[in-house]
Design brief:
Layout: H1 3-11, H2 15-27, E1 34-39, E2 47-50, E3 60-65, H3 66-71, H4 80-86, E4 93-100, E5 103-110
Parallel strand pairs: 1-4
Antiparallel strand pairs: 1-3, 2-3, 4-5
């Protein structure tokens, strides 16, 4: 089973917390583009939500934004419009920036925390 097939199950215990972080970023007008960095490395990005090994987690999870990723040069300024075009509704999907031994990749994971009432 590949990393990306395992990831939803490995993140399932943290979905509610991840959802609260994403919703707070949007509700407080911090950004319209929340991103969750999922990694097994040392990373100075955003706000730490879960530390790897904490409660048996295989992943550290940080809450960040597109704007911070541009500032830290993880997203190139000439790619911002492309990123915004493919970015999915954060009330329905988590935007994950996954760093692993397979490299770095953005993926969108359907939210399975509590549905958001508009």
């Amino acid at each position: 089973m590949s990393l990306y097939e395992r990831l939803p199950a490995e993140l399932a215990p943290y979905q509610k917390m991840m959802g609260q972080a994403v919703d707070t970023i949007m509700d407080e007008d911090v950004s319209r583009y929340p991103i969750l960095a999922i990694h097994q490395l040392e990373l100075e990005l955003g706000i730490l939500l879960v530390q790897r090994s904490e409660k048996g987690s295989k992943w550290s999870i940080h809450a960040s934004t597109l704007e911070e990723m541009v500032t830290k040069k993880l997203v190139q300024t000439n790619r911002i419009d492309d990123f915004r075009r493919v970015y999915k509704n954060p009330r329905e999907f988590f935007c994950l920036f996954v760093l692993s031994d397979q490299g770095a990749q953005f993926i969108f994971l359907p939210r399975e925390d509590e549905p958001y009432d508009i």
